[in-house]
Amino acid sequence: MPHRLAYLIFAHRYPQQLRRLTDRLRAEGSHCWIHIDASVPLDTFTPLFAGQSDSTFLQQRYRCRWGDSGLTTAMLAGITEVHRSGIPYDHLLVLSGQDYPLVPTDTIVRFFAENPGVSFVHRAGMDETNNAHLLSRVERYHFRLPFNQILQYPGEPRQHPVKALAGILLKASGRLPLPRVLPGKLKHHFGSNWLRLAPVAVEYLVRYAAQHPEILRYYQTAWVPEEHFFHTILFNAEEADRGRIIPDCLTYSHWHRPEEMYGVPLGMQDLPALRQSGELFARKFDITADSAILDALDSLP
Question: Is the pLDDT of residue 132 over 90?
Fold first, then answer.
């Protein structure tokens, strides 16, 4: 029996690129579950997938704006739906619509088949990093205001007078206790949200989140919570309960490049580094900026 991969893909643009990705991932027993951001019409994408029985569009959609809790909620809902769908899988891989494989699909399938029951989740313990920026994400409250403004409480010493006034009012209300305490005596963890999960980890994650909704509520006012919520649940658990986890997401990203290149999509100039990376996937790609890189990756042995 082939090793069955469930791909949970989050996309908000580039329908043709998404279709190309799912075509490249196609393998016996594998299935793609696709979440399209609620801010864009679903029918921008669905016509390209007519007759594709191995691709399913999630009907429950969420607005996923960078930094807020939308993606965390969407990921948890999507992971739960895949797990309860009745369609069997041996690993669940979370991707974005701008990810792309660096190796042939059979190599990906073989890799996970050789690691049954093992999850791959990049992590960094918050106490280990002692990073003030990361700690501020989870130790302060964050709210999205009109015009895409972010209110952080407690705020920085120097901030816009309106935000400073809002902070004074929030403090006076007494509704946002400080210091923030993560429920359940859990320790914060951080890592890439591109998860590669074995069923035992998915089962634990879904069950724990359902039994402890206060954890999601806590992270709904954190910043970039998708890089904390899942890791905190999984890495506070015993290995006997959530299975073995190797701290690696198997993905080459723009963070591997010089800082001035962070905002530039991967392109042909990155091909040597991509080939030498040893990773299974990379991100981000943009066919409107450079489609030749995808052609080059498709031609690699």
Answer: no
